[in-house]
Amino acid sequence: MDPATLAALYTAFYTALGTLGLVAADTYINANTMYLETTVSEGVKEEGYEPEVVDGIFVAEAKKITSTPSLVAAPKIQSSKTVPVSAALAKAAGLESALVALQGLMGFIPPKMVASIIAEDQKQRVQVVQSSNGGVSEHVVGEEADLKLVLTGYDPQTGYFYVTVEGRTADEDVDELIKDAAFEAVLKLEPYLALLYRVNERAEAGEDLAPARKLIDEAIAAQPGAIVHKHRALLENLRGIVALLEQNQILARQDFSRAIASDPNQPVGFLNLAFLEVHEDHYQEAIRLAEKVIHPKMWPVTTDPVLRASGYTIKGVAETEMGDYRAAGESFRNAVALNPKSSEVYVYWARMLRKAGRPAEAAEKFDMARQNSIHFENFPEMALLYFWLTEKGQVPLERRLGMVEEL
């Protein structure tokens, strides 16, 4: 194609996209979307794993991981196997390179990832059969190959990356290889949400938390040594939750304190340390910490109603244990005003009323807790929303599994 024709096509394509606003729209809409392309070796295709199958498993797993409930982090990268409109038009016109050039001029490199399943060291499984006359024959009973999945891609925050996941064979579950790769991809792109997912997954399954703690340790070690660092604070807080799951309150206290030091403007560290102070019967200190979130001296640490309601709930439980039922009732009312869908507020409020010798009102509050149980949700990073507070500090913490009749 001569330069003049190419220039004309390029100009027409640029004008068409500019007129429709597709380049700008794609830049705005798709800047946080990671598009996935997949290649699969022939041997794996024969097992039914066409690229679109791998795409589906990978994207579904990545979305599951990044959908772990969090009050302090939202996914920055969404997964998709659908290309942007401008990319589809460019491909149809055979002008993909022109689109890339346009995006480059706009300072935009779209997030993209390529997943390749590769079969290595393919070999035959042979069965040796010995006959009655002493002869030996070999029969091929199947083939196997060491598999690995290679991820390459680009993300504006992470930059270019390369991840290899290996260790599976063709006669094992290829689905698990793909899911492992999805986790590694999210761990690379959004490490906090990946680790939050892993902690919750292992806790729900009753599995050893050491592997999750090791990943958190590695992530913390990789953070800059700055005195204040927001991402390190979240990781330190999450490691404190792991310590609570392991019934190690000493380590939990250390990590929550570190999280507060790393980011004094992040409320979860204060709330989790306040929760631990109530559990260990240090009620005044718990109230002091909770009030840093609900009654800051200078500026609000958070405007999130669920986090502020959690602060009031912890304060109300501490006041209950101190016998200040009037103050506790006021704290619980404030918590409900901020988070009317809460079930845990009504549980602790009912417990306070029962202690105060008001059983009829306690039963009424517990009915409200049961009604709100349809909204019940665990948040792994928040102690109050992941464990039930007990009335006695020596009683081990229990992870919230749903509504409880007694605490």
Mean pLDDT: 78
Q: Runs with pLDDT <50, length 5+?
A: 12-31, 84-90, 92-108, 121-131, 136-143
Written as H for each helix and E for each strand, in order along the chain, the element string is HHEHHEHHEEEHHHHHHHHHHHEE
Distance linking N and C termini: 78 Å
Determine the fraction of residues in helical runs and give it as a percent range.
Answer: 40-55%
SSE class: alpha/beta
Compute the number of helices.
17
CA gyration radius, whole angstroms: 28 Å
Taken from the alpha-carbon principal axes, the silhouette is: elongated
Find the count of extended strands (DSSP E, 2+ residues). 7
Keywords: Repeat, TPR repeat
Protein name: Tetratricopeptide repeat protein
InterPro entries: TPR-like_helical_dom_sf, TPR_rpt, Ycf3
Structural features, described:
It is a single chain. The chain is α/β, with parallel strands linked by helices and 407 residues long. The chain is built from 17 helices and seven strands. The chain has a five-stranded mixed beta sheet. It has a two-stranded antiparallel sheet with strand order 6-7. A hairpin with a 5-residue loop joins strand 3 (112-130) and strand 4 (136-155). Helix 15 packs antiparallel against helix 16. The longest helix is centred in the N-terminal third of the chain and has 18 residues, at 3-20. The termini are far apart. Mean pLDDT is 78; it is low at 12-31, 84-90, 92-108, 121-131 and 136-143.
